[in-house]
Amino acid sequence: MFIVLLHYLQPLAVVEKHLAEHRKYLDRHFSLGHFVTSGPQVPRIGGVILARGLSRPELDGVLAEDPFYREKVAQYQVIEFEPNRFAEGVQAALLGKLAA
């Protein structure tokens, strides 16, 4: 599993210009089961994506598709981890689809 931290390289006005296309990219990867959750950082200096079911090279390929990456709007920090503790009910919801 991966935590992907996006850090904006451009002003928010530039980020906003690419936001609709970025959201379509997110939707595609949510539907493929790659992304678990995503959202903006607070304060809005970037975003966060929780990804699963991919190897690191596969994730790198997925991130290279992001319009924010292509247009040099954001850079990425990827943190790989192995979850082993969960709030009640979360494990099945989070990891259940990994076996699929």
TrEMBL record:
One MF term in the entry's GO annotations: hydrolase activity
InterPro entries: Dimeric_a/b-barrel, YCII
Domain YCII-related: 1-81
Keyword set, alphabetical order: Hydrolase
Name of protein: GTP cyclohydrolase
Organism: Ideonella dechloratans
UniProt record similarity statement: Belongs to the YciI family.
Keyword Metal-binding: no
Superkingdom classification of source: Bacteria
Gene3D superfamilies in the cross-refs: Dimeric alpha+beta barrel
